[in-house]
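Bumping my old thread because nobody answered last time. Still need a sequence for this structure:
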């Protein structure tokens, strides 16, 4: 497929720019409107996900958390309610308005009154929020397949490396990055995306149509057209993703954190030896003490 035919055949529906260099795919508000229903609010969030994340954070003695892909704030709210100190950022102001509304509604609670929410760009994240980084966070979270939204046309994936380096800089020594991506190995092989996921309250998902764009024989991005029906509301929107393979993503993580850094990989909240062909891979990378 040529570059011209790719441009004519695959057009992202969300042209808003939240911050320089990072496209806001939620800018028209369509996805943001139904996203919290789709992923499940704080009361319907799947227990296996909640228990996995909280137990993992507590096992690493994490107290101060930076959520770099907070979206509507679902995970940040869950962590605040569990007693963590949370700073939340996202590239989409349309998503953040739901988090800001929740903070205002619960402002009489100390945890919510102290909740820091910012619109931020991963490519300049450390410089953008260094006043709140202070000595560093115990954990940086980038979950829900969010990192794959960052496109990178360079053969060396320079923007991806720059963003993850910013995540690493925000960690204190001994802190952990918890970051995930869909099983793009399987998506590229089958051309399909599982409609069901342990992350989401996906009983509301009617359909996800998946398209894979190859350029010069290499998969360039994956487009997912969502049709979601929830609460008498039908919403259609397209989100586009960079297809990280497991080996490729692991290589980048080790390049930035070092080969000696502790690196654990989970599949759908389980050890990889307990599950075959998971929908999601979750990486835990620990920053060295030096």
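Sorry it took so long. Here it is:
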């Amino acid at each position: 497929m040529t570059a011209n035919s790719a441009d004519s055949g695959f057009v992202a529906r969300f042209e808003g720019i939240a911050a320089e260099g990072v496209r806001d795919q939620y800018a028209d508000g369509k996805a943001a409107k139904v996203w919290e229903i789709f992923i499940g609010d704080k009361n319907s969030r799947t227990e296996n996900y909640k228990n996995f994340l909280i137990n993992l954070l507590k096992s690493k003695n994490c107290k101060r958390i930076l959520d770099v892909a907070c979206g509507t704030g679902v995970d940040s709210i869950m962590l605040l309610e569990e007693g963590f100190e949370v700073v939340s950022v996202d590239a989409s102001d349309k998503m953040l308005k739901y988090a800001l509304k929740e903070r205002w509604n619960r402002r009489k609670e100390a945890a919510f009154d102290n909740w820091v929410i910012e619109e931020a760009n991963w490519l300049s994240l450390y410089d953008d929020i260094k006043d709140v980084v202070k000595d560093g966070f115990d954990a940086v979270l980038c979950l829900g397949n969010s990192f794959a939204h960052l496109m990178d046309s360079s053969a060396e994936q320079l923007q991806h490396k720059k963003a993850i380096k910013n995540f690493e800089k925000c960690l204190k020594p001994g802190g952990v990055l918890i970051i995930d991506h869909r099983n793009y190995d399987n998506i590229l092989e089958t051309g399909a995306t599982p409609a069901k996921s342990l992350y989401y309250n996906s009983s509301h998902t009617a359909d996800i149509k998946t398209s894979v764009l190859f350029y010069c024989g290499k998969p360039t991005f994956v487009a997912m057209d969502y049709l979601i029906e929830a609460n008498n509301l039908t919403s259609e929107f397209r989100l586009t993703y960079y297809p990280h393979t497991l080996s490729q993503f692991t290589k980048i993580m080790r390049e930035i954190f070092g080969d000696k850094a502790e690196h654990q990989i989970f599949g759908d909240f389980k050890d990889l030896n307990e599950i075959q062909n998971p929908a999601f891979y979750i990486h835990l990378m620990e920053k060295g003490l030096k």
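DSSP finds ten helices and 13 strands in the chain. Let me know if any region looks off to you.
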